[in-house]
C-alpha cells in the first residue's frame, strides 16, 4: 500500500460516510495494518467521553472497528449544537466556549494549524489514516477554511472516494456536479461509489456507465441499502415510531423529546435479541412499554417544558405507578423535584421537574466531561459501574451530591455508556423481565455484536468487491 491516508467524502450529509469509514478501518486492520480514523471537525450531539475528554461517537465506533482505543485526536474538533444558532466548541476533548453562528469562519482559521498538526501526528504513527469528510465536498460558500473536506484534501493531496446516495434521488447531479464544482480536486479522486441502492443492480448498470462517461472517474461500487442501522450519528437519521410494538419480547420506549442527545447510549439495547426498542412521542406507545427511557438532552429545561406543554409530563407521573422508568443524565435531572440554573446556562430561574425521585439539580460551571465510576444502589446492581459524564448539572439529595438514585421502579443516573457494560445490561433487562413475567435470557457482548454486524456487511458481494477493488487501487 502506498497511500498513508484515504478519505471518504460525500456529495451531501447522510450518504453513509461514517459507516463506510468504519468498514474501511475494519477491512484494512484485518490486513495487518495499523489504522486510525480521523475527522477533523464533527458536528454531533452523540459524544463519548474518554479519559482525555469528549469526542464524537462515530470516530469512537470507527476506532473500535480498527481494533484501536478511541482517542480525541481522531476527532480534534467537535461542535455540539445548542439552541439559538450556537454551538459548543470541544477541542481535544475539552470545552472551549460557545461559538455564535456568525463567527464560524474566524473559528476555523484559528484552529486550522492545530488540527492539521494532529493529522500529521496520526500519519506518522499509523500505516493508514482513514479520513471522514463532513457534509458535502462542494459546499462552495464554506470552502475557505473547510478543515474536514476541501482544505485537508488539498493540503495533503489525499486520495478520496466520493460517495453519492441514490435513495433520496438526484444521483447524477450529486456526483457529476460535485466533481465539476470542485474540479481542482478531481484528479485526487480514485473513483466514486453509489450508496443505498434498492432493487436489482442490473437496473442501474447504464446509470453507472453514464456517470463514468460524464465524470471520467471509475465507479467503484453500487452498494445496497442496508436495512439494519449500524451507525446513526445524527438524530435526523433515526426512525421515530408511533405505530406501537409488534413483538412479544421486552418493550422499551425511548421518549424522543426535543433536544434529544447521546441517543447512541442506547445502541446496545437496539441490537439486543428479545428487546424491541422504539423512539417515540406517542402516549399510546409509552403506555405499551415495559421500560420507558428518558435520554440525555442538550437543553434539559426545554425538553422538560415540552413534556409539560404536550401533557406527557402528567402521563409519566401516571405511568410511574406501573412502568419502569430510567433517566440518563438530562433524563435523570427531569426525574427529580426541581432544576435551578442561576448562571443562565440553559435558562434563568428554576423549573419544577417530575418529582418521581427526590433529588434537586443545579446547573453550574465548569462543565464535567470524562470517565467516571459510581456504585449505584439499584435493586439489581450494587457494585461498581463505569461510564462517562458530559454535563453542567449537579444533583443533590439531603445536601449530598449524587450520581445515581432509584426508588423501586424509577431509576436515574448521570453515567452515560452504562449499556455498553454487558453484565449491567443483562442484569437490568432480566430484572424487568422477571417483574413483567418474561423469561430471563443471556446477553451477547456488545463488542461481538459490533464486529459481527460489520463482518456481516462484508458477506454481501457488493461490499466485498468494493473493498477488494479499493485495496488494489491503493
Summarize the structure in words.
With about 475 residues, the chain is α/β, with parallel strands linked by helices. The chain folds into 2 domains: about 250 residues, Rossmann fold (3-Layer(aba) Sandwich); about 210 residues, Class I glutamine amidotransferase (GATase) domain (Rossmann fold, 3-Layer(aba) Sandwich), CATH 3.40.50. The strands form 6 sheets. Strands 2-9-1-10-11-12 form a 6-stranded parallel beta sheet, sandwiched between helices. Strands 15-13-16-18-25-24 form a 6-stranded mixed beta sheet. It has a 5-stranded mixed beta sheet with strand order 20-19-21-22-23. β6 and β7 form a beta hairpin. α1 packs parallel to α2 and α5 runs parallel beside α6. The N and C termini lie close together (about 5 Å). The relative contact order is 0.12.
Give the topology, please.
Elements: E1 5-10, H1 17-29, E2 35-38, E3 41-43, E4 47-49, E5 54-56, H2 57-65, E6 77-82, E7 86-91, E8 94-100, H3 104-125, E9 128-132, H4 150-156, E10 160-165, H5 171-181, E11 189-197, H6 205-215, E12 219-224, E13 250-255, E14 260-261, H7 267-270, E15 275-280, H8 283-288, E16 291-294, E17 296-297, H9 300-310, H10 312-319, E18 324-328, H11 330-335, E19 338-341, E20 349-352, E21 360-374, E22 385-397, E23 400-402, E24 404-407, E25 410-413, H12 422-436, H13 446-458, H14 461-473
Parallel strand pairs: 1-9, 1-10, 2-9, 3-6, 10-11, 11-12, 13-15, 13-16, 16-18, 18-25, 19-21
Antiparallel strand pairs: 4-5, 6-7, 7-8, 14-17, 19-20, 21-22, 22-23, 24-25
Amino acid at each position: 500500500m502506498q497511500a498513508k491516508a484515504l478519505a471518504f467524502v460525500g456529495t451531501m450529509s447522510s450518504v453513509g460516510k461514517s459507516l463506510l469509514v468504519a468498514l474501511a478501518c475494519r477491512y484494512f486492520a484485518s490486513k495487518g495494518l495499523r489504522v486510525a480514523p480521523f475527522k477533523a471537525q464533527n458536528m454531533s450531539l452523540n459524544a463519548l467521553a474518554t479519559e482525555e475528554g469528549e469526542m464524537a461517537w462515530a470516530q469512537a465506533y470507527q476506532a473500535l472497528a480498527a481494533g484501536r482505543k478511541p482517542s480525541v485526536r481522531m476527532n480534534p474538533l467537535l461542535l455540539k449544537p445548542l439552541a439559538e444558532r450556537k454551538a459548543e466548541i470541544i477541542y481535544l476533548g475539552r470545552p472551549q466556549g460557545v461559538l455564535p453562528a456568525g463567527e464560524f469562519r474566524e473559528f476555523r482559521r484559528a484552529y486550522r494549524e492545530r488540527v492539521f498538526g494532529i493529522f500529521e501526528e496520526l500519519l506518522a504513527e499509523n500505516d493508514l489514516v482513514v479520513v471522514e469528510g463532513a457534509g458535502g465536498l462542494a459546499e462552495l460558500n464554506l470552502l475557505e477554511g473547510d478543515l474536514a473536506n476541501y482544505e485537508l484534501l488539498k493540503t495533503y493531496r489525499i486520495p478520496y472516494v466520493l460517495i453519492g446516495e441514490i435513495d433520496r434521488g438526484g444521483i447524477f447531479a450529486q456526483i457529476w456536479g460535485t466533481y465539476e464544482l470542485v474540479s481542482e480536486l478531481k484528479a485526487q479522486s480514485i473513483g466514486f461509489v453509489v450508496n443505498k441502492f434498492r432493487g436489482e443492480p442490473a437496473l442501474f448498470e447504464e446509470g453507472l456507465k453514464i456517470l463514468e462517461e460524464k465524470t471520467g472517474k471509475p465507479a467503484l461500487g453500487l452498494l445496497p441499502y442496508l436495512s439494519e442501522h449500524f451507525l446513526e450519528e445524527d438524530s435526523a437519521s433515526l426512525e421515530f415510531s408511533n405505530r406501537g410494538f409488534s413483538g412479544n419480547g421486552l418493550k422499551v420506549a425511548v421518549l424522543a423529546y426535543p433536544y434529544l442527545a447521546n441517543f447512541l447510549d442506547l445502541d446496545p439495547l437496539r441490537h439486543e435479541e428479545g428487546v424491541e426498542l422504539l423512539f417515540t412521542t406517542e402516549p399510546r406507545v409509552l403506555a405499551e412499554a415495559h421500560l420507558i427511557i428518558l435520554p440525555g438532552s442538550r437543553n434539559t429545561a426545554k425538553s422538560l417544558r415540552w413534556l409539560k406543554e404536550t401533557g406527557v409530563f402528567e402521563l409519566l407521573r401516571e405511568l410511574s405507578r406501573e412502568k419502569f422508568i430510567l433517566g440518563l443524565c438530562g433524563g435523570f435531572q427531569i426525574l427529580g423535584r426541581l432544576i435551578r440554573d442561576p448562571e443562565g446556562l440553559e435558562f434563568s430561574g428554576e423549573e419544577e421537574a417530575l418529582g418521581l425521585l427526590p433529588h434537586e439539580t443545579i446547573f453550574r460551571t465548569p462543565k464535567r466531561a470524562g470517565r467516571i465510576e459510581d456504585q449505584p444502589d439499584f435493586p439489581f446492581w450494587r457494585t461498581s459501574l463505569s461510564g462517562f459524564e458530559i454535563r453542567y448539572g449537579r444533583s443533590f439529595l439531603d445536601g449530598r451530591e449524587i450520581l445515581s438514585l432509584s426508588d423501586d421502579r424509577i431509576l436515574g443516573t448521570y453515567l452515560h455508556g452504562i449499556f455498553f457494560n454487558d453484565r449491567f445490561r443483562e442484569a437490568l433487562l432480566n430484572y424487568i423481565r422477571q417483574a413483567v413475567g418474561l423469561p430471563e435470557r443471556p446477553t451477547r457482548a456488545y463488542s461481538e455484536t459490533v464486529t459481527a454486524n460489520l463482518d456481516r456487511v462484508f458477506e454481501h458481494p457488493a461490499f466485498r468487491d468494493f473493498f477488494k477493488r479499493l485495496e488494489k487501487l491503493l
